[in-house]
Amino acid sequence: MNSKNQLTPLAALEPLLADPDAVEIMINGYQRVFIDKHGKLQNVPTPFKNEADLKAVIDTILKPMGLVANACNPIVDTRLSDNSRVNVVMPPIAVDGPALTIRKFWGTRQLTLDDVVRFGAISEDILTFLRACVESHLNILISGGTGSGKTTLLRLIAEMIPTDRRIIVVQNATEMRLPQPNTLHLESRPVNAEGQGEVTIQELIINALRMRPDHIVLGEARSSEILELIQAMNTGHEGCLLALHATSPRDALDRMEVMITYHPISLPVLTVRSMIAKTINIIVQIERLYDGSRKVSKITEVLGMEGNTITMQDIFEFQESGREEGKISGRFRATGKIPRCMERMQAYDVELPLSLFTPR
After folding, report:
1. What is the DSSP string of 141-182?
2. From residue 304, how far is each of 173, 273, 277, 307, 311 by CA, in Å?
3. CATH architecture of 3-103
């Protein structure tokens, strides 16, 4: 360990934090360190001599936030000063020793719309459609698995919101910041070492409704707080954007339904399902494929209820055509379905050519 490492325990991680290709750092006890690089997991040499070194890094991260991780408080979520997301799990919960996971945030090096088109993650036609959806105050759900790029895509779509509108962004940790001038970023807060000071996502959503938002952006829906947002969308707060962990558009709606059942207010299942069908207009499904690439696999429109089932139709999809040198090839195509939300767009004087939805 060099003199720099001796000055601050966190310096042991600086080479990994500075690596622009390492998007996630996973430490499974002091002896095993992995990184997510180019979509693949790699085992790298540990920078720690012993468990005390790793604990010192964890303490250095948590102390400025007024947090502690120990046997009595073994699971902690927080972030670094650059907004990188941090999760800590301590023994005895972590049987193999302290576990530290850091999902890095790149600040000024964030991807742009041009980047994701160039990388083949989305098409220009899909972006044109999504921009029209945003301008028409449609409610958009971004759905995807772990590491699929949900937060990045949510930010890029939120950046399409016109600058003359007021935006309230609600997040567990400030992973994204929007450039529009009339934007407020609200962040939840866990309990401190004394068991006080907690501010929940649910409280932030309720408060956001009092702040005259044109758009509410929820970083990720995880539990019953989704009911507050659904009720807001049902009562005139349209143009909401949110991300959710799910493997398909249908799974996303099912997960929303389950999350709402966690709420202290008990609602009949069909009432919940109907509320979801009335509020969510568009689902953007993003996937992380086996080759490490990210693709928007479907753009799905929620149509409403038929009997007890929410009906949907796919507007765009990614069609895989093969594999070349370990990479997935394919193209984005329109399905030929004309979105029903076109009527809503016309009400907002947003025009889209019907040729956009013609398969080719």
Report:
1. EEEE-TTSSHHHHHHHHHTTS-TTS-EEEEESS-------SS
2. 33, 10, 5, 10, 6
3. 2-Layer Sandwich (3.30)
Question: 251 in helix, strand or coil?
Answer: helix
Average pLDDT over residues 216-231: 90
Q: What is the pLDDT of residue 74?
A: 93
Residues 60 and 54: their CA atoms lie apart, in Å, by: 10
Greatest Cα-to-Cα distance within the chain, rounded to the nearest angstrom: 69
Write down the pTM of the prediction: 0.82
pLDDT at 66 > cutoff 90: no
Q: Give dist(CA 174, CA 183) in Å, integer.
A: 13
188-223 pLDDT per residue, tens: 887 766 667 789 999 999 999 999 999 999 988 888
**Mean pLDDT taken over the chain:** 90
How do the domains of the chain map onto residue ranges?
Answer: 3-103, 111-357
Residue 323 has pLDDT above 70, yes or no: yes
Contact residues for 3 (Cβ-Cβ < 8 A; gap 6+): none
Q: Which long-range contacts (CB under 8 A, 24 or more apart) does 265-273 make?
A: 265/227, 267/227, 270/308, 273/305, 273/308, 273/310
CA dihedral 207, 211, 212, 215 (to 10 degrees): -70
* Phi and psi at residue 58, to the nearest 5°: -60, -45
Instruction: Indicate the CATH number of 111-357 among 3.50.50.60, 3.40.630.10, 3.40.50.300, 4.10.410.60.
Output: 3.40.50.300
In this chain, the answer to whether the domains covering 3-103 and 111-357 adopt an identical fold is: no
Q: Residue 234, CB half-sphere, CA atoms under 13 Å: how many?
A: 14
**Residue 107 has what pLDDT?**
47
Cα–Cα distance measured from residue 243 to residue 154, given in angstroms and rounded to the nearest whole number? 7
pLDDT at 284 over 70: yes
Token duo for residue 224: 């019953």
Q: In this model, does residue 349 exceed pLDDT 80? A: yes
Cα–Cα distance, 21 to 16 (Å, whole number): 9
